[in-house]
Specification:
Oligomer: single chain
Structural class: alpha/beta
Number of helices: 3
Largest sheet: 6 strands, mixed
Radius of gyration: 21 Å
Distance between the termini: 80 Å
Length: 232
């Protein structure tokens, strides 16, 4: 009876999961930096809403009160901060997001393969999708190029470590070269994108030449500037 009366203990199931987060690096004067954030939101309303954001404070020297004011200012803009890095733990309060460490930018550096790796199974360097990416869906492939035979719907998102090829309309967001691949490009047969980004440099819908809308186009980096031209 006593054994039967015991409640069986259920093991807690833990899973690891990684996310692509935006890293904000404020600069001084912070108010001017916030104005730049406002300009981005004005061009693309709701772009940062609900997205993981990490604040890197290594470029500024803020007091505890200053950090609190910055977090409040971002929250007023519907930007929720997941964590903070680049600051001493003593400057944070228990009510603030946690201090993070160990984050990686995933920059790929060429290196000679080791003999022990020759027989190892290699990861795919490209991802092919033969169906459309519908509104609300997110595709993340940090290991190489992404090719989509259909279209990318409004509100959808494609994130790639290499280039992005869309053989239909691109109406959502496309972010290429997220692992530091500055030579990555974005190609599409019909550009109606909400946002295009390569290695962190981006343009929103308002930045794209209206003459290109609805036409084949490509985007690439020229220095620190994104260029978007017709695809002939």
């Amino acid at each position: 009876m006593e054994a039967a009366a015991k409640v069986q203990r259920q093991m807690v199931r833990l899973r690891g999961r990684s996310y692509v987060a935006f890293v904000f690096t404020p600069t001084v004067p912070v108010q001017d930096w916030l104005h730049e954030i406002d300009a981005t939101i004005a061009r693309s309303p709701g772009f940062f809403a609900g997205r993981p954001v990490v604040i890197d404070l290594s470029s500024v020297d803020l007091s505890q009160a200053g950090i609190g004011h910055l977090l409040t200012s971002l929250q007023d803009r519907n930007i929720r901060v997941l964590g903070i890095e680049g600051v001493e733990e003593g400057r944070l309060t228990p009510a603030m997001p946690p201090l993070l460490s160990g984050g990686r930018s995933c920059v790929v550096e060429p290196s000679a393969p080791k003999k022990a790796d020759v027989k190892a199974e290699t990861k795919p360097t490209s991802l092919l999708l033969d169906s459309p990416v519908r509104s609300g869906q997110t595709v993340i492939f940090p290991d190489g190029d992404v090719t989509i035979l259909g279209s990318v719907g409004s509100g959808a998102e494609v994130v790639a470590g290499g280039s992005i090829h869309v053989y239909g309309a691109l109406r959502g967001r496309a972010m290429a070269g997220v692992n530091g691949h500055t030579s990555a490009r974005i190609y599409c047969q019909k550009i109606e994108a909400e946002l295009l980004a390569i290695d962190g440099f981006y343009q929103t819908a308002d930045d794209i030449d209206a003459a290109l809308r609805g036409k084949p186009a490509q985007a690439w980096l020229q220095g620190n500037t994104m260029r978007i031209t017709a695809l002939n």
